[in-house]
Amino acid sequence: MFKEIFLKHIRETGASTVEMSRFLDILKQLIRTPSVVGAEHYFFLFLKKELEVIGIQAALHEGVLVAEGNDPDSGMISAHIDRHGLVCTGPNEFQYAAFTAQNRGDLTGDSVAEKTYRDIKERFMHQRVQAYDPWSGAYLGLGEIDNAYFCERRVNLLFNVKGLEHLHAGTPVAYVDTLSYEDEHLSAQLDNVLSAAIILFLYERGYQGRAFFTAQEEVGKSWRFLLEWFRGRDISTDELLVLDTSPYPDRKSADAQHIVLRHKDANAKFSSSLSPKIIDICNKLSIKYGYKDEFIENINKELAEKNRAPYSLGSTEMGRLVNASEGSIQGTTFQLPTTGYHTTSETVSMAALMDAIKVLEALYL
């Protein structure tokens, strides 16, 4: 029933039902494959197989899967593939995987993500979860979250989970997730499996450039794996396009744009020949776009008037790379506006998704 309703909407927009039906199949398949931050190996292997089936070379390096078509220099796209979830940290003890002590990187408590996750703990109540072997992907059990609370001493979310009392410390626990469609919006744990699905779809549509699928972005480490790859091959670029979702507090602010760009983040300013190309395509196709840094700066002006602490501009994979490479690796971000950030009901409008695919096809195909 879900697919029929989805395709009915696609037909009404004039888009190809065959193409979008295929995209939907890719997305649903990837959503079912667990990839908790810090335990992404099985997802990498699954993605590698899917790429090779369609004739794309894929090589797995530490923390990054590199895909190359017949013309690798024709494009350079990146997307992280880790998703939020839990990790068993002791007998019947479960913590939010990204913010365990061993995973915390440069998180300081002032980012949009950190401010958000403190407020969403109640959304995990009665969430079904599944444990899996991080290397083989083997199913290790099904459970349900019956309580979630914030521990000030460990500065993390902790969970009570029924049904997984047998697990050993270090076992990843993913949310049992399904894709849903309602009122012209798709919902699931979209960050950032949505971008991985878009890249696979682009390859099936004829993209022959290069793509990077990175691990541990949710703990601020993915840029290190990319930097290692670029430095090892003495490659510089100003055309790296990083795909992701971008959180907004409500549908009105999310729907104000279909494509989210940036001038900068908390780490660096972006300077890329891609930016004017994307803007030109958006203008020609009458696609709405906005800048996330400007959105946050406007919020901070309101907070300053109320003598409240400002939000960080956010730390993106792109910004970290620009900073660490001293500008030898440049590019820009390309994000889809969503609500319900870092939950299994993160939501994107179908209009934004289809517009994003249109822009990427115009840019690379």
Keywords summarizing the entry:
about 375 residues; alpha+beta; Aminopeptidase; 2 domains; 6-stranded mixed β-sheet; 6-stranded antiparallel barrel; about 25% strand; globular
What does this structure look like?
The chain contains eleven helices and 17 strands. With 365 residues, the protein is of the alpha+beta class. It folds into two domains: 263 residues, 3-Layer(aba) Sandwich (Aminopeptidase); 90 residues. The strands form four sheets. A six-stranded mixed β-sheet has the order 1-2-12-3-13-16, with helices on both faces. Helix 2 crosses helix 5, helix 6 crosses helix 10 and helix 8 crosses helix 11. It is globular, with a radius of gyration of 20 Å. The relative contact order is 0.17.
